[in-house]
């Protein structure tokens, strides 16, 4: 993969930082070039760009978003942004509901995780929104199991929780124009899958790691 | 050479500001090298951070005045924008307010400043108190969410009034046509800002030196009667002493300075009350040592429109 940052990506990152006036706090760890999966709450189209723009540029060049294929292939512009500009890893959402039997569910889930693992390679990091879709921002929705499977397959990759605050008020789901309020981004303490840890326990722990980083609280 | 530099009295004011900054930096330096106890360290560090910020703010303000009326308009427009941004971030709004907020930030506020630019006083004066007052609740109603309706409309309107409408009266001084004072309006703006901000600073200084008896301690624990009386008295004296840069007599200058100081105090107190209500200490963290932009200009918000109208009523035929 070509690791140079696309100029449009840098431009969009600068614009997003300007609009959101984001204050970044590395509360639980320092920026690092080691392989990481940043996972955060999701309430706005700005989420990825803001999180990505908060990383130092050397790290930014190696960090790709995981995004929903159905949405980001929905129009030529979206496809261009996802594939060329941000080099997103596009994955099929809701694979399970399209499957006909349990084996197929298992198989589809497996290809999905394979795609993500391939994209991680040996040097890349990723930005991942485990809720799978944008919420209202009032609370963090339940996490889907993708994060667990990634953690299981790549225990060497650090899982870094992050909380994006107020972005749902700046550009909520369904709106096209942003309102320039201020926002906060907090990175938490890296976590790992414990040996023998049950999927649900782990996902609950990851969920708590993200929501505990909230600083202002619900409006 | 910028137009402003041809006005010797304005240059003298700039010089005065520079002397004050140098003096305060020297005092800050002496205090820092003498500090012993840890208890006073935070106060002195905070003081030095404030002085540093004052250098930056003064430089930006003087630079904007050198650029002429457009410079001041752009600067105050920007301050309004940043102040309203802090305000709206911390005042709870709902999803249904999104478009109304967008209009407030990108249409109503710029329009307010544009009207000063084209010197359309009539529309400038009613833009937010009348037109926006009608527009905002209508726009929220169209969005359809009725929960806390009155509260939301009031909060957005208040933000626009304080951050855009009131503050815009400071650069609006530049369009006043005072006979015999043409082309010197920049001095009037500088006079307002100096008296207002010095009143703030002197209240803080007097309060730290001899402050004991608290005023409205529930709202703002740092405000004391000693600080208030000392600060208002010295800032009024300073304003009176600056009568020669204004079209006022010394007595008029004393009256106007006193008004600016009292209104500055009221503005600061109201903003503190809002902060208490929301449950925060500062509106933002943009200017080091000062809290946010809104914390710095809260005193100007109430002083500017009243000063503007007093000058307009008594000095513009």
List the main descriptive attributes of the protein structure presented here.
heterodimer, A: 219 residues, alpha/beta, seven-stranded mixed β-sheet, 40% helix, 16% strand, globular, B: 317 residues, mainly alpha
Question: How would the blueprint of this fold be written?
Answer:
The complex is a heterodimer of chains A (219) and B (317).
Chain A: H1 7-20, E1 23-26, E2 36-40, H2 46-53, H3 57-60, E3 63-68, H4 69-72, H5 76-85, E4 89-91, H6 95-98, H7 102-120, E5 125-128, H8 146-153, E6 158-165, H9 167-170, E7 184-187, H10 199-211
Parallel strand pairs in A: 1-7, 2-5, 2-6, 3-4, 3-5
Antiparallel strand pairs in A: 6-7
Helix pairs in contact in A: 1-2
Chain B: H1 8-34, H2 38-66, H3 69-90, H4 98-117, H5 121-143, H6 149-172, H7 185-210, H8 225-241, H9 250-278, H10 293-315
Helix pairs in contact in B: 1-2, 1-7, 2-3, 3-4, 3-6, 4-5, 4-6, 5-6, 6-10, 7-8, 7-9, 7-10, 8-9, 9-10
- Stretches with pLDDT under 50, minimum 5 residues of chain B: none
SSE string of chain A = HEEHHEHHEHHEHEHEH
- What's the total helix number of chain B? 10
Helix content of chain A: 40-55%
Rg of chain B, nearest Å:
20 Å
Number of strands of chain B: 0
Q: Helical element count of chain A? A: 10
Quick structural overview:
The complex is a heterodimer of chains A (about 220) and B (about 325). Chain A is α/β, with parallel strands linked by helices and about 220 residues long.
């Amino acid at each position: 993969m070509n690791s140079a940052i696309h100029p449009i990506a840098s431009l969009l990152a600068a614009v997003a930082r300007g609009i959101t006036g984001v204050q970044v706090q590395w509360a639980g760890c320092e920026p690092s070039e080691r392989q990481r999966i940043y996972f955060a709450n999701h309430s706005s189209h700005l989420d990825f760009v803001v999180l990505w723009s908060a990383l130092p540029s050397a790290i930014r060049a190696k960090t790709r978003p995981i995004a929903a294929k159905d949405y980001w292939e929905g129009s030529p512009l979206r496809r261009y942004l996802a594939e060329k500009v941000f080099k997103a890893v596009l994955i099929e959402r809701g694979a399970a509901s399209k499957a006909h039997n349990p084996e197929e569910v298992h198989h589809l889930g497996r290809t999905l995780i394979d795609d993500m693992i391939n994209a991680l390679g040996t040097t890349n990091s990723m930005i991942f929104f485990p809720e799978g879709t944008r919420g209202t921002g009032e609370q963090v929705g339940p996490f889907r199991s993708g994060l667990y499977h990634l953690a299981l397959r790549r225990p060497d990759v650090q899982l870094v929780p992050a909380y994006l605050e107020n972005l749902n008020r700046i550009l909520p789901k369904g709106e096209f124009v942003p309102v320039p309020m201020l926002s906060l981004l907090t990175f938490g303490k890296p976590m790992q899958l414990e040996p023998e840890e049950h999927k649900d326990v782990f996902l609950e722990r990851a969920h708590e790691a993200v929501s505990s980083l909230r600083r202002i609280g619900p409006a | 050479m910028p137009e402003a530099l041809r006005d010797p009295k304005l240059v003298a004011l700039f010089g005065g500001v520079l002397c004050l900054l140098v003096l305060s930096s020297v005092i800050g330096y002496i205090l820092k090298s003498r500090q012993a106890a840890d208890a006073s360290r935070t106060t002195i560090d905070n003081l030095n951070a404030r002085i540093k910020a004052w250098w930056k703010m003064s430089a930006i303000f003087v630079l904007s005045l050198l650029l002429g009326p457009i410079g001041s308009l752009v600067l105050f427009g920007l301050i309004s924008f940043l102040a309203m941004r802090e305000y709206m971030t911390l005042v709870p709004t709902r999803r249904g307010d999104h478009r109304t907020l967008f209009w407030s930030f990108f249409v109503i506020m710029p329009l307010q400043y544009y009207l000063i630019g084209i010197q359309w006083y009539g529309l400038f004066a009613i833009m937010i108190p009348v037109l926006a007052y009608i527009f905002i609740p209508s726009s929220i109603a169209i969005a359809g969410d009725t929960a806390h309706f009155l509260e939301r409309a009031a909060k957005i309107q208040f933000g626009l009034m304080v951050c855009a409408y009131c503050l815009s009266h400071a650069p609006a001084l530049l369009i006043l046509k005072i006979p015999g004072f043409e082309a010197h309006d920049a001095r009037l703006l500088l006079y307002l800002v100096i008296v207002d901000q010095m009143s703030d600073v002197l209240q803080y200084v007097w309060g730290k030196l001899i402050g004991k008896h608290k005023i409205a301690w529930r709202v703002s624990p740092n405000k004391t009667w000693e600080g208030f009386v000392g600060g208002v008295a010295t800032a009024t004296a300073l304003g009176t002493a600056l009568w020669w840069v204004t079209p006022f007599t010394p007595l008029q200058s004393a009256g106007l300075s006193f008004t600016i100081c009292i209104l500055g105090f009221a503005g600061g107190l109201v903003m503190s009350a809002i902060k208490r209500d929301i449950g925060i200490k500062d509106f933002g963290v943009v200017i080091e040592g000062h809290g946010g932009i809104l914390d710095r200009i809260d005193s100007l918000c109430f002083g500017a429109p009243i000063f503007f109208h007093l000058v307009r009523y008594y000095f513009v035929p």
